[in-house]
Design brief:
With about 400 residues, the protein is mainly α. The chain is built from 16 helices and no strands. It is elongated.
Length: about 400
């Protein structure tokens, strides 16, 4: 059983009739103008209706109408109605031969499942959504000769199921099962590519031609549209970290960092968003290292934190980095956490490097205030006050007990 933690206004126009019988009066011109505008409005409306009903024409006729109605209801915010139409489209699609969907049929079939499950989850029916995702993944796993895109669709759905199993408390074993499959399959895809596969994983996101047009009409969520080979490793690493299996988490984080920081072909640097996610994982690794056996754990933790800081600082200087607003926002938030962690690690080191720790906490405070990160600013202020109290009183056998690094 799943549980969940105005009206238009017109300006009045007054005109005087023209005394010249040969010149159209201003009122006539206004009337003509509004007539033209009305005609354009009607034409635009007609064009919009035509454009909408000319969509989905490449889908099999048996599902075309329900898909069109389901997506229209979704765009109008009526998710209950959308789910009813999409449910019927999904059930009908199961009765059709794969040849009805032409190229990459499993990409299209699973696309219907995804938009249906998204609508079900949006109407607070996560159990039904979970079952639809599970059925779609089962079909993908049972299919033969999948394309690279279809295999990565299986990865995305399995990753989604793992997250849902955690959020809706389906049990740790079930979450681990889904996340593990996602990681194993993405590694198999990468291995096949390295062994001479024709399709590069980074180029699998958007199919061309008929398949691309059909999938675009479904308005799929972002986690399906984007090919993200590192996300399953991040998710499984986070799952193991939360469960105290740090050695597994470290291995997965390291693999994910390697993928994120690898530049695309013919590029000098990885994309801004990937670099910022890599820095975030480095900070998480730093947090994991603190949980390891002393005394070397603090040294390794500090090294990873400083590496994260270096990646962020370099990313700030890359050409066009500031245009990636979302990616840089992640970098800036991660930097506030990294600086705090460095302060905590310096404070906890042998002898307590209090001056360096104070500087790092202060920089974290300034960074948090700069980006409006209230929780981060409060943490940094608290650390500075604690450090002030510690330096005014005699040390009592070591570093402050509440100086704990935090994962980003």
């Amino acid at each position: 059983m799943f549980t969940r933690p105005a009206s238009k206004q017109y300006a009045a126009l007054s005109t005087n009739a023209s005394k010249s019988s040969g010149t159209p009066s201003p009122s006539a011109r206004v009337s003509t103008l509004f007539g033209v505008l009305m005609a354009v409005g009607v034409a635009s409306t007609a064009y919009g209706v035509y454009q909408f009903y000319s969509t989905f024409t490449m889908w099999p006729p048996e599902v075309r109408g329900d898909l069109r109605a389901g997506i229209k209801a979704k765009n109008q915010g009526d998710l209950d109605l959308s789910a009813r139409y999409l449910q019927r489209a999904w059930e009908t699609a199961q009765t059709l031969p794969l040849s009805a969907f032409a190229s990459e049929p499993h990409l299209k079939l699973s696309g219907i499942a995804v938009v249906l499950a998204e609508a079900l989850e949006g109407t607070n029916r996560p159990q039904e959504a979970y079952e639809i995702y599970s059925a779609a993944l089962l079909q993908l796993r049972a299919a033969k000769d999948l394309t690279g895109r279809e295999r990565m669709r299986a990865v995305a759905i399995s990753h989604k199921l793992g997250e849902m199993a955690e959020v809706y408390q389906q049990g740790s074993e079930e979450a681990e099962q889904w996340l593990t499959y996602a990681v194993e399959e993405v590694l198999r895809v990468l291995k096949d590519e390295a062994n001479g596969g024709k399709e590069g994983v980074r180029n699998l996101a958007v199919p061309e031609g008929e398949a691309g047009s059909m999938l675009a009409e479904l308005d799929l969520p972002w986690w399906v549209r984007k090919i993200d080979v590192a996300a399953p490793l991040e998710a499984l690493g986070r799952f193991y970290a939360n469960g105290g299996k740090n050695e597994y988490a470290v291995t997965l984080y390291l693999q994910a960092i390697g993928m994120l920081m690898q530049p695309p072909p013919n590029q000098k640097n990885a994309p801004v968003e990937d670099r910022c996610r890599g820095a975030q994982l480095m900070n998480n690794l730093s947090d994991l290292m603190v949980r390891g056996p002393p005394p070397t754990n603090l040294k390794y933790a500090e090294n990873w934190a400083r590496q994260a800081q270096g990646v962020i600082e370099k990313t700030r200087t890359l050409p066009g980095a500031q245009k990636d607003v979302e990616g840089m926002a992640l970098c800036e938030q991660t930097l506030a956490a990294v600086l705090y962690n460095l302060g905590a690690l310096l404070e906890a080191s042998m002898g307590g490097k209090n001056d360096a720790a104070r500087q790092s906490f202060q920089e974290s405070l300034e960074q948090a205030k700069k980006i409006g990160m209230r929780a981060g600013a409060m943490e940094a202020r608290s650390a500075l006050r604690r450090l002030e109290r510690t330096t005014k009183s005699p040390p009592s056998g070591g570093a402050a007990s509440d100086a704990n690094p935090k994962a980003a």
